[in-house]
Q: What sequence folds into this?
């Protein structure tokens, strides 16, 4: 915005950092594991601190579960996790944590076994109905995550060490900082603007131009990998369980039955899920025996299919195993919709370039958007040079302290535009929005009366200062402690 904001920019930059993810309040959704080809017990080493495979797997699973709970297990799978770059996010978080663990080691910051025990005792999902940590529940929790107690406790210890280190480093806000921040929230702007939507850009896509675009980008238009598979289903027979059996199973696995807030759901409201889970557990032995007979040719497949990679007929976890397997492999049974499926991978059919006709619809859509964006950018530049054609104005002053939707924009785009305006030193500019461009001119600016925000800014200022401190520390620690990565593709 405007000069004052630039002069005080150091107070306004927020760097987001997550040290680690010790999140175990979420129910377990069966995220599987990440397959590493290295024989090393670590995926990387930062200075003197190794990042173990166990810790990476656990952290990946926890973050995966968080996304699955927020989006719904049916809306989040390994393909979406891969597209999101979840593996790289996890590695970056653990790398950041390892930097601070090196620093803590250098300065002698430690935590005791009692502090670790006290932290674990806070996790409600490990407690019995009387509120005490139950050893059996704890053992089952560790078993379900593929963890040993010493590994889990080491993960918690590292988390506590970093928390203790940061509490020693972080400082309280100064009076000058409060005043600077308060002044920021008192600035108010009125703007004239115009919304340029992609749909408003009339562009024509001729066959010759479209074919040239395809020729230039043809390597991007491929068929999906396909798989010839034999599938053997091991379905649940009628299984009856006594109430005692169900209650025992629930008690030992209660950490898996939680609501969206991470609170344990009682037995009566979990009973249908308990029955399903216990059925699946009992069915596993049958599935293993049937796989052996299937492999020896004593059982015929339930069906033979050719599926595109990621087809919803199979689970995301199963697809990951299929993709990493060789032709002819008989895979271990996996749960799909309450039954076990054993896959015999007959043959992988590699992707190939689509012909122009096969790719035409996809190419036309992408090329049209490119032409529309080019047209909008040209129109936006003309408006910036001569903003008289800006045809809308906000009725009230916009500020950082109070969210105000802008007519014609979604709440998300309104927030994005507001933040951009108050972070720019230009009076006339353009902002990319979800379906086009937003061109604006600041027509009026004023300083609001003091609204006595000083007492409420401590948390915000501390967050900004500490984020800035963490960011600068990262730079120093990254140059000080070397990184060795043993697994490709994590950075």
A:
């Amino acid at each position: 915005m405007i000069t004052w904001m630039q002069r005080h920019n150091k107070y306004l930059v927020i760097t987001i950092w997550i040290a680690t993810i010790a999140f175990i309040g979420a129910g377990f959704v069966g995220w599987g594991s990440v397959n590493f080809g290295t024989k090393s017990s670590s995926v990387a080493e930062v200075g003197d601190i190794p990042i173990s495979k166990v810790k990476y797997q656990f952290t990946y699973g926890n973050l995966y579960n968080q996304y699955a709970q927020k989006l719904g297990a049916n809306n989040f799978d390994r393909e979406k996790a891969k597209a999101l770059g979840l593996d790289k996010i996890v590695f970056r978080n653990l790398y950041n944590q390892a930097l601070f663990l090196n620093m803590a080691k250098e300065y002698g910051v430690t935590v005791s076994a009692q502090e670790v025990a006290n932290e674990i005792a806070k996790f409600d999902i490990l407690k019995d109905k009387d509120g005490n940590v139950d050893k059996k529940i704890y053992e089952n929790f560790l078993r379900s995550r593929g963890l040993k107690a010493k590994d889990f406790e080491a993960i918690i210890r590292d988390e506590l060490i970093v928390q203790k280190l940061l509490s020693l480093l972080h400082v309280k806000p100064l009076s000058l900082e409060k005043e600077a921040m308060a002044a920021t929230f008192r600035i108010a702007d009125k703007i004239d603007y115009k919304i340029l939507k992609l749909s408003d850009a009339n562009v024509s896509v001729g066959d010759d131009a479209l074919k040239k675009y395809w020729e230039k980008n043809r390597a991007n238009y491929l068929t999906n990998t396909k798989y010839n598979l034999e599938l053997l289903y091991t379905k649940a027979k009628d299984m009856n369980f006594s109430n005692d059996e169900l209650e025992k199973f629930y008690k030992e696995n209660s950490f898996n039955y939680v609501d969206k807030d991470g609170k344990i759901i009682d037995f009566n409201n979990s009973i249908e899920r308990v029955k399903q889970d216990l059925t699946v557990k009992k069915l596993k032995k049958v599935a293993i025996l049937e796989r052996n007979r299937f492999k020896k040719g004593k059982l015929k497949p339930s069906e033979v299919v050719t599926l595109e990679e990621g087809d919803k007929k199979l689970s995301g976890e199963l697809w990951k195993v299929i993709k990493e397997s060789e032709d002819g492999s008989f895979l271990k049974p996996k749960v799909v919709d309450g039954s076990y499926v054993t896959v015999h991978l007959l043959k992988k059919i590699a992707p190939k370039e689509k012909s122009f006709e096969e790719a035409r619809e996809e190419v036309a859509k992408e090329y049209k958007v490119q032409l529309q964006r080019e047209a909008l950018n040209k129109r936006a530049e003309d408006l910036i040079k001569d903003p008289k054609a800006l045809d809308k104005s906000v009725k009230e002053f916009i500020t950082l302290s109070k969210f105000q939707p802008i007519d014609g924009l979604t709440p998300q785009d309104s927030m994005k535009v507001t933040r951009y305006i108050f972070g720019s030193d230009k009076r006339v500019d353009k902002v990319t929005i979800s379906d086009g461009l937003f061109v604006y001119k600041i027509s009026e600016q004023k300083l609001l009366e003091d609204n006595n925000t000083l007492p409420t800014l401590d948390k915000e200022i501390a967050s900004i200062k500490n984020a800035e401190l963490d960011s600068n520390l990262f730079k120093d620690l990254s140059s000080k402690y070397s990184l060795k990565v043993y697994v490709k593709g994590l950075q």
Remarks:
- The radius of gyration is 28 Å.
